[in-house]
Amino acid sequence: xxxxxxxxxxxxxxxxxxxxxxxxxxxxxxxxxxxxxxxxxxxxxxxxxxxxxxxxxxxxxxxxxxxxxxxxxxxxxxxxxxxxxxxxxxxxxxxxxxxxxxxxxxxxxxxxxxxxxxxxxxxxxxxxxxxxxxxxxxxxxxxxxxxxxxxxxxxxxxxxxxxxxxxxxxxxxxxxxxxxxxxxxxxxxxxxxxxxxxxxxxxxxxxxxxxxxxxxxxxxxxxxxxxxxxxxxxxxxxxxxxxxxxxxxxxxxxxxxxxxxxxxxxxxxxxxxxxxxxx
Length: 279
What we know:
mainly alpha, ABC transporter involved in vitamin B12 uptake, BtuC, 12 helices, 0% strand
């Protein structure tokens, strides 16, 4: 198994998957806390519109996907805040419009679009040194923003109304985190694909949330779960020659199910033990 490290593409994949696992866990903890996990699906599918338009115009599809992701995420935040619309309703509209635009422009693009499958389903082993540098810079920016604004992020995530009452920069925090979420989604599209990205942004945090309720421990635990599952999924997927992104998500789902069942059984035994002692 260790002979995989002799290949540069596998080493790049390991570095890339570690960086994205960390970033996705940090972003995921925020959106899970804000009960906005659906935004990852909405923005991810809105990116498809940018991909289709990029192919049609002959522009780098990743750049166009990034433009669509940022504007759609800002649009969700703006519409839900300024017009008091339900966030899940706005996300559904953005989701549908992005997919519709993407389908139209992909259909209008002459010839076959071979790279489209890599964006839809992901191909970790195609990560380049340029992608790694982009992931590294983004992860550094995200980490610095969390370090310098941690308390504000936590308060805004848990209770925006209270944050407004105590005069925190709620709009700045929410818009910045929304844009960072969009950028994370764009950078991660080639890692796991549009179809599987939502799981990577939610399953590790859901697993951590089973055992922890405080923001910092939950974020650190989700980083650990994401790292272990991502690296293990990369090895297993490469070893058995199946899409690594699918194996990563299956592993994350399996860990969540085991954690949920294990914690439930432990809770039942604990309540029974307490009842017996009282009796």
